[in-house]
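Handout for the seminar on molecular recognition.
Each group receives one record of this type.
Step one: identify the two inputs.
Step two: read the structure output and locate the region that could contact flavin-adenine dinucleotide.
Step three: write two sentences on what you found, then compare them with the reference statements printed after the record.
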Amino acid sequence: MKDHIKHFKTILDDKGVLLPEDGIDGYVSGWRGEIGSTPCVLRPTSSQETSQIIAYCAAHNLHLIPQSGNTGMVANSVPDESGEQIVLSTERMNKIIDIDPINKCAHVGAGVRLSALNDALAEYHLSFPIDLGSDPCLGGMVSTNTGGSRYLKYRGVRENLMGVKAVLADHDGTVIDDLKPLHKNNTGLDIKQLFVGTGGLFGIVTEVMVRLSPLPAQSATALLIPRDMDAAAALLIEIEKSCHNYLSAFEGMSHNAMQRALSHNPALTNPFGQDDVPHYAILLELSRSWPEREAEQPLNDVLENILAELWERDNAPLENALIGAPERLWALRHSISEGVQKSGKLFAFDISFKRGDFFRFREAMIERLKTHHPELTLCDFGHLGDGGAHFALVIDRDDTRASVPSYEKTVRNFINDAVVLEFGGSYSAEHGLGRKTEEAYAKYTPDEVKALTHAIKTAIAPIPVGTIKI
Ligand SMILES: Cc1cc2nc3c(=O)[nH]c(=O)nc-3n(C[C@H](O)[C@H](O)[C@H](O)COP(=O)(O)OP(=O)(O)OC[C@H]3O[C@@H](n4cnc5c(N)ncnc54)[C@H](O)[C@@H]3O)c2cc1C
């Protein structure tokens, strides 16, 4: 490895190669607690440098793990424990290259943080509207096809992506420039899609061109407490009927999930005041891109009227509703992920269903868990509006089963079999593929799809890059 490191130092400047003695823990530790090891971290500043690295790794049979913000949730962004995989961090490709407010697009380096892009866009009243509780980088977002809380209004990265520049995982490190800032372009194969949601399998994204949306100028939020779980699905339909164009989030939070967020984050105020945390709550957000206008109902009033109308119905779907400041209500939603993770040993499932099926699944699994796994506590939350759910199961850390791999495997099969085989859902709705999902990929992917993916990979990008095994 010494000679390889020596060579990398001829490609990159003196900040470009980090060694274990430089303090690289942050690059080998993943969000879910996975810890790997690497002989070095490479930090190129351009596509050309990345290309030289890939070509060299190809010639010497070295395995690269691309990393951007390292917020991946499926053990996908850090090396394994072999000590042989090399981390390639995009963090120095962090320039906002261009913002075009007329064409409504931004061209950025793969290592630009989502928050940095949105800060820069604010002066143009524009945003890249993918919203989530972490602060990833644009390269990682392309590679995982991030969804997030406002998916039902804006969709995910794929739908907001105009182009990428990427270095193919081939012997030459071929640079593919597919960065045309065009809203429409039907001229053959949409090559950039190779790099969307594929976790580096086909190569490393170095630059990204994204489509922008107007920054919301008004928003109104409420916590809805549904009468029961059937009413939660009915509420979504009713709200879509009355204000579909304004609806920007419809997020579910179970009692256990909210409770853990509140216990973990002392800075949170309990929006339910002295009252108990309810059995389930939905964070509803309406937004629009223009400020309040005279003779137009403010958005808070629109929301209040819709809720009052639902409330007054016979057999009202609402048990209660609280209108509150967006920052306060979103703080609760965004604290759940960490609160749940810190509350015990977590088995996380990022699943999705045909809208409406989630509650049938939830009800069935609550009953089955009581019988088969009473040691697990369900702390679910997620993106109800698009059929997505973070089905988080927590076991006490002191329980001896918590760290037994065969136990985790049993739990994963128990949940994923029901999701995929029984309810026709997905075992990875938005977090993509990684070590945590490789068994599920092997089990549930049709043979023809596996064979085609394998054939494409072998034909155009045969060099091992990333954590996905196909
Ligand atoms: C608190 C919290 C909340 C979250 N909420 C959501 C959510 O609501 N919705 C959602 O979709 N996700 C969510 N995530 C998951 C995560 O933030 C996303 O998957 C994110 O898009 C990952 O981006 P990243 O820059 O951190 O990538 P990384 O974690 O660095 O990498 C992710 C994957 O992409 C590959 N990769 C990284 N950069 C490149 C590149 N330049 N070229 C090729 N491959 C690359 C990596 O090898 C890895 O496979 C959440 C995470 C946390 C911690």
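Reference statements: DSSP finds 14 helices and 19 strands in the chain. The mean pLDDT is 95.
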